Amino acid sequence: MKSSSTTLSYSDLIDPDASIVTKILVMMRMCLPPLRSNISSMKFRPTALIVDLFGTEAMAVADEFEMLKYMFIATNAWYVATSIYTPIVEEHVLDDHTNRKLPLKIPGCTPVQFKNIIEPFLYRNDPVFKWYLSLGMDMTKADGVLVNTWEDLESKSLEALRDTKMLGHIAKALVYPIDLFARLVGLPQVFRNYSVLDWLDKQPAESVIFVSFGSGGTLSSKQMIELAWGLEMSQQRFIWVVRPPSNSNASGSYVTTEKGPARLSDYLPEGFVNRTHKVGLIVPMWAPKAQILGHPSVGGFLSHCGWNSTLESIVNGVPMIVCPLYAEQKMNDAMLTEEFGVAVRSKEWS
């Protein structure tokens, strides 16, 4: 029998089959005691605490130490607007959106079409949707919200968040666009120590399509095979960041590595690597995405629509083929294809 003083580990607290959101929230909750202890022990305490959308419980720690509290949202202002507005929406409006598939109208913003629905809306009886509602309410309690975007890109949503006749009276907190990725153009030579960049140096200008599904995006076995055949039949130069498929979870690579075949030949079509080696480069698990997108040989990006990938592609002027997988990526898809005009949607993606 465990003693009462035994320290619980992450694996003791979480079901291995729990959603990625639940897993991250548990990990963040485990960080609260050491965060409180470290701040308490500081001779000169910080005046502000910045939390991300999974760390809002730490805002209570900021209150304990009379610190300012800011939220950093790594995705776009349209998502922030939707999150802030959803907790005050009447139940029948949510029913219309999730059951009758009607657009969710956000004051001052582009309506969210059902085809672009944010994932938690599909499971309104699930704890993840309750977390999403609490996220929106927590945003209104912050002293400021830092959003990973810039004025010219999302002026409509940012204006709605500031205008008291639209969302400003709900948001209350000041919203600051911080355009992190606008500073990535022109990376110094020290970041070029990657063999994939040497391979790109040998390719013609704008001749390579870069295929990557972000830090956690994971394809199913069927999607993996179809993508491989598509790349081969296109006879297009490509770089493909490959990780083992997951048939259960499109975000399966975030917290744990899917146990599965370790060799490329186990999940790619037989002979694919040999047949494409003159035009393609396969990179296992990870590649320097920002540096690849900034290379003059890259002419296109097949992407999952993660917001960081989106901004890196935009600042480097690389057009996209978008294949959203999870979270708010269908909203990103809509912005890129229908509003910004910098991407096309894969009609066959499912």
From TrEMBL:
Lineage: Eukaryota, Viridiplantae, Streptophyta, Embryophyta, Tracheophyta
SUPFAM superfamilies: UDP-Glycosyltransferase/glycogen phosphorylase
Recorded family membership: Belongs to the UDP-glycosyltransferase family.
Protein name: UDP-glycosyltransferases domain-containing protein
PANTHER family referenced in this protein's UniProt entry, alphabetically: UDP-GLYCOSYLTRANSFERASE 72E1 (PTHR48046)
InterPro entries: UDP_glucos_trans (IPR002213)
Keywords from the UniProt entry: Glycosyltransferase, Transferase
Cited Gene3D superfamilies: Glycogen Phosphorylase B
Example GO molecular function: coniferyl-alcohol glucosyltransferase activity
Superkingdom as given in the UniProt entry: Eukaryota
